[in-house]
Amino acid sequence: MKKVLFITYYWPPSGKASLHWPLKMIKYLPQFGWQPVVLTVDEDTFSSKDESLLNQIDPNLKVYKSKTFEPFNLYKKFIGKKKDEQLIASETISTTNKSLTHRISIWIRMNLFIPDARIGWYFSGVKTGREILGKEKIDAIVTIGPPHSVHLIGLTLAKKNHKSFFPVFIDPWVDIVYYRNFKRSKITLAIDNYLEKKVIEKSTASIFVTETMKSDYVKRYPAAEKKSFVLYWGYNEEDFENLETTQKQNEETILHAGNIFDFQNIPAFWKRIRTEIDHGRKLKLKFIGTVSPVIKQSIKEAGLSDYTEYVSLLPYRQMLQELMKASYLLVCATEPRHVPGKLFEYLRTGKPIIAFGNNNKEVKKILEETNAGMMFGYDEDGGKIFESSIQFFTDLKKVKHFDRKNITKSLSKILSFKY
Residue 162: which CATH number? Predict the structure, then answer.
């Protein structure tokens, strides 16, 4: 059986949503002729923990860990947080926090950490990676980004050891959406662009999780045209076994799972919910995960404080259970080249999906093809979903094409790709 080294910053017990894709690829790859080996950090101190994910790791899987410099520990001290206090992702890049310490930390993050704040893992990651390659007969290397600094570790190891190299882009690199409200110096951008181009052009093949992201990269880097593939984020069918679907009678819950940031605020929708409540509809908002200060304030201003519940991140299966109990599922697809990972889990529930985003044609297409919900622009109030929800009967047969076992089979074929 051939061996593939997965290099991923996030690994259980980290509760980071972006680890679910590699976790399931690693689980199913042996069924398709590939034995995974994992390289990750010894501890991710930024993300919330989900101990339940440890149960999904095969005890025979070889997992190597190496130390990393974690700048967020210094960030905590800088802004006055205690060492054991949890950082909230939406707050670290908030545009409403005008304090000097916050503005300085943002500038440092955007301009001194290239390509990202996890670059401190590079030297340790390369060192441990070389040790792995000396012990294991590795045939291919797969890196998962973001953080995109992980791709630099993979590229270095692949070049010096003549291995096939497959970077996976879950999000864009240089112009990822949360950079849009912050200034990066010309020097920073020049270095970052150089690194991105180098990874794309030196890779055996690049893997993207959306068609639009692939098209954008091919447009910028024509050399990638014949060696780029799309593997959707997907969901895991097995995770939905034996979940309850009981809802509270006479109450409709609109649920958002994951992080929601300042730039994803939808004030017109919050006002529309208030209008529906005033007309007798028993609606409730529920957030599982982190919610930015701007959005909390906007919800308060819309008069929805008494109709809104904020829940911290839950263990993964418990989160899926909450999705199954909701009446509507809310997603903000801000980045036109990105399909939010949670969308596929939303699709599998069969519940009507309310999506907001400008020019995200791919999300709109998926919703229409599966008859799962509606897409609105950020300036719309989304009211049509309440008038039309009875029309949505999700085509689960089409949704099941996104099962990660099917996606893993496609990945196994890509790993044998030669350019």
Answer: 3.40.50.2000
